[in-house]
Amino acid sequence: MALLAALVQACIAQYAQSNALPGLNLQALLGLGFNLLLVGLAAWPRVPAHVFQLILIVSGQLWLLSSALLFVRAEIPSATLLVGFLTMALFAFAWLRAPAAATLTLAGYLLLVGPVAAARPLDPPGLLMTGFAATLIWFLSAHGQSLHRAHLRNDALATLAFTDPLTGVLNRRSGRERLDGALRAARAHPQRLAAVLIDIDHFKRVNDSLGHHRGDEILIALADLLERSVTPQDAVIRWGGEEFLLLLAGRDPQDAQALAWQVVRAVRAQRLPGFPPVTVSAGMALASEAEGVPGWLALADARLYAAKDAGRDRVVHQGNRETPHAQAPPS
């Protein structure tokens, strides 16, 4: 926008030079330089947004004052002055609190109807419509900010409703909805849909020895690792307590098994400062192995318990369910 404003000021400067309007020419050249400076500031990330906005508001006030002087000198028509006032009002209501914006806008309007109109008559209908337009800008700005706050509240409520507040992954309720939808979508190829139920080994010992707040750190770290291990078509769900559920979609069974083992190895290799080594156990089931979501999850849960019974720190799945002591596939 600053670049567009610079282009407008360049055109105005050319017009002022060709019509022998020195005051307008000076204002346009200053505006051109200022807007080019704004382009440079916008490209500099160290300038905070509120500083940038304050610069625009102050410069808008100065521009309005200089335009009032040019109007009194008969170098610009009233329409140019009124448009400048509305631009200033728009900046004020967009970036300032309502009382400050209203005060600034009212002061500008009083300048127009007072000293400026006394020195050189303004178009009365134009002045009245400008006052109405400024009021409309205030109303639309307040309404827009109210809608924005409502959207933020709704987004926050939606986040609370569908995600786990500690780890940021899907909670059990939204996870169940995701499972139902994924199972319907994979009806033609249920063997390409896997659920991996993951449980942190000996998690109660961590909570008892280090405290629940330190246990929360492990949960957060595991959720982060799981999210980094999957693709956007998959899902990470906090199923409850120290249990997480991976929903793996569109993968061959061997690929799903490989990813489950990859997670187990990654957790084993991860070292969290101040914690003993952490491992997880996992049970994996394909949607094609059971009827419906309850049976599917029950099978994954049974295999998780089999992994625990087999010594933990492993995955039990279709390929090794009869021999849970089987070694992991090679890395």
UniProtKB/TrEMBL annotation:
Q: From the record, give the transmembrane residue ranges.
A: 28-44, 51-72, 78-96
What keywords is this UniProt entry annotated with?
Membrane, Transmembrane, Transmembrane helix
**The keyword Ribonucleoprotein appears for this protein:** no
Ranges for domain GGDEF come to 191-320
Keyword Nucleotidyltransferase among record annotations: no
* Stored InterPro entries: Diguanylate_Cyclase, GGDEF_dom, Nucleotide_cyclase, Rev_trsase/Diguanyl_cyclase
> Per its UniProt record, what SUPFAM superfamilies does this chain match?
Nucleotide cyclase
Kindly name one Pfam family recorded for this protein: GGDEF
The protein's matches in CDD domains, at most eight in alphabetical order, are given as:
GGDEF (cd01949)
Task: Name the PANTHER family for this protein.
Answer: DIGUANYLATE CYCLASE DGCM-RELATED, REGULATORY COMPONENTS OF SENSORY TRANSDUCTION SYSTEM
**This protein is called what?**
GGDEF domain-containing protein
Gene source species: Deinococcus knuensis
Origin organism lineage? Bacteria, Thermotogati, Deinococcota, Deinococci, Deinococcales
